[in-house]
Amino acid sequence: MSTAEQRIRQQLGEFIPDDLGASLATANAVSSLTVTDSQVLAEVTLGYPVGSVRETLVASIREHLQPVLEGRELVLNLQSRITPHRAQNSLPALDQVANVIAIASGKGGVGKSTTAVNLAVALQAEGARVGLLDADVFGPSQPLMLGMPEGTRPEVLEGKYFVPVEAHGVQTMSMGYLTTKQTPVVWRGPKASGALVQMMEQTRWHELDYLLVDLPPGTGDIQLTLAQKIPVAGAVVITTPQDIALLDAIKGVEMFRKVDIRVLGIVENMAVHICSQCGHQEHVFGQGGGERMARDYHTQVLAALPLSLRIREQADSGKPVVAANPDSEEAALYRQAARRMAARLSLTEEGKRAFPKITQH
Length: 361
Description:
By secondary structure, the protein is α/β, with parallel strands linked by helices. Helices cover 34% and strands 20% of the residues. The longest helix has 18 residues, at 329-346.
C-alpha cells in the first residue's frame, strides 16, 4: 500500500458521522478504497438509513478528505445496508423481519405512542422498510394516530394470517383493527400476552428492516412475554424530564437490561415549552433528567422534543407530524432520533459493526 493510500484510508476511517457517534473505521463502514495517481474511488456502507442527510454526509466526507487528496478526483459512493442484529438470548429471527425494536415507557402519559408512530414514519422517510405493531392490547391508539377510518380491518389470508394495514408507507397492525371503540378488551394478563404473540406471529410482514413495537406502559406481563418469546434487537425508552417519570423510566431500562435487551437510547418528550406568542422557553417539567439517566445507564438521549401543540394536534387528527409537516423542527427531531436509534443498533455492544455469518444448510 502506498503512503498516499495509507494516509487517505486513515483519514477516511477517522470520519465520524453525527448520528453514528463512532468513526467509519470502528463501524467497519469503509467497504472499498482504490487510489490511483489521479483518482480516489471510495465506497462507504452505513448500517442505518440516511435518506434526508445523504447529501450533507457526502459533502462532509469530501471536506474531511480534502487535505490528503493531493489533487486527486474523489468518486464517493455512500450507501446503506441494513442487516439483522442479535436478539436477546439469541432467539431465532421472525420471518421477514430483520430487527424488532421495542418502544417502551415506565408510565403512561409521556407520549410513547405519539413517539412510536413518528419514529416509524421517520425511519420510512429515511429510506427503510418499516412496520409498526401496536402492542397496547387494552388501549390501542395507533389506528387513530395513523388516521385510519373507523372500522378498518386487516385482510385475512388462509383463514389465519393478517395482512398489515399500510399507513404513511408503514406496515401496521393493532388490536384496534380487531375491536371497536365500544368494546373494550377485558382480559387477564396471560390472555393479553398471548394476543401480542399471536398478532406478532400471525401478521404477514413483508421484508421489514425494522419492526417497531409500541408497548403498553409499565413493566408487566406483556413486556416480559415480549422479552421471553419475541426476538428484540433493541429498545427505546420514552420519558419526560420530571423526576417521577424518570424514576419509572429507570425501571424500564433496568427491565430491558435484566432480560438481555440493549437500550438504544432515550427520547425525552415535553423537554421544553416554547411560547407560541413570544418564543420564551420554559422547562415546565424540569431539565437535564434524560441526560443524567443516559449517563448513568451508558446510553444516549436520541432527541429532546418540545412540548408542542402541533405534535399533539396532528397525532389526534391522524396525521403524524413527520408526514404532515416534514420541514418542521419537530419532524427534523424525530428523524434525528430515528437515525440515531438505527445507527446505534448498527453497532454491536463493543461499538463495531456486526455482519451476520452466512451458513449453508
